[in-house]
Amino acid sequence: MGTKIMSKNSNKAVIIEGFRTPFVKTGQDLQDMSAEELGIRVLRELLERTQVDFNEIEEVVLSNIVNSLDHFNLTQAITRKVGLPQHVFARRLSHSYLENVFNVATKIQSGLVKTLIVGGMESMSQAVVAPSPGLTKIIKKVIQSKTWKDRLKHILSLRPKDIKFQFTDQNLFFHSISRGGLKQKVEGLSDYFHISRKEQDEFTLMSFQKACQAQKKGIWKEEIVPVFPPPDFELLTKDPNLENIPTLHFLSELKPCFNGDHGTVTEGNSSFPADGAAVLLMMNEEKAKALGYKPLTYIYSFSRVSADSREYNQGFLYAVEQALKQAKLEIKNINLFEIDESFSAQALACLKSLKSSKDIDNPSEKKVILEEVDPKKCNVNGGALAIGHPLSATPIRMVLSLAKEMKRRQMEWGMVISGACQGPSEVLILKNVLN
After folding, report:
1. DSSP labels for 87-151?
2. What is the pLDDT of residues 82-130, one digit of tens each?
3. For the ranges 148-152, 324-328, 380-384, which has the lowest average pLDDT?
4. Element (DSSP H or E) covering residue 282
5. Domain 182-219+301-432 has CATH 3.30.505.50
6. Are 287 and 135 within 8 A, CB to CB?
């Protein structure tokens, strides 16, 4: 699916502003903040800094994968607690894709709405776990027992093998990241593209170096909002994982996740589960001008492609081709790229698939000439390998970071590439409003 969003009418979809919390590794500084609290913090900051009239906001769309048991509609709870009026339609999504941004832009383009907020938040530290089936059965018997004698009888029937917990069905994706599932598929991706362990470790180190340099320059300050996490409520204003850059030697010594000593994917060259939230304020261009806002960037075109896991390069490649075709651009026109860093091998595979695009099957089907992408244009401030990967917040963070960097460098075209080794590959093209 390839779609050009921007048109000649006044309903062009623009990003006005966006913010995120610091991204923090699970079990650390943000572990006691729920997804709701993280969402409230970043949404409240967006509303305060932009001074947007609450009555102008028509819809809020927030995604959350690692589900909380607190609310059926987490987005509605968040919008009410920040003071948005009852008429604001609050929608929660249980998936996290660039498509969320595209769908909002499409609504604006169609004229259905004029002002929306889109975002995502995760408290991956608070991923819901449930008793194993065996333990659940015994718990039910204890609850249903009418006497203390019967309750004690069932409790004493517990065996060590019964005392197990597992992630709930909604959190299987989180489980697959933290325990292996996707990493094993990425191992196949690295084999397919002949990506060495050294290449992956070097790419990871480079991500850290660029992210740390951006932090020293104060670049992240433009998008990060301060938080005061419990229980100590000490001010947190930056991504804490950037305090220490790993050495290449340290990364090379880590044990592979699979295939013994022959494996290449490690905990070091994979992004880490993190807690965090990010939001964007979007409007149509006419409304933005009427309210006195200067757009940060235009949403220009979008493409989403699903590829079989046996065709590792097809998803990345065709998604880029379709997005460029819709925008009537060539890859050389793109000034900056923001590429998904869920895994080092994944980002490298994306770059290699573009480089080798002329060798794929059915070359006659190619509509856009692709070529090797200059690494200096890619993830210029690092990515998820260094700062972390709160699932629903990461795609929003990628769009936000790229939009601000395009504005900072006064560059016209930017491309966000997101995709897993199995499943959808997505591409979003941004157009800067040059001064």
Report:
1. TSEEEEES---THHHHHHHHHHHHTS-SEEEEEEEE-GGG--EEE-HHHHHHHHHHHH-SSHHHH
2. 999 999 999 877 666 788 999 999 999 999 999 999 999 999 888 766 6
3. 148-152
4. strand 274-284
5. no
6. no
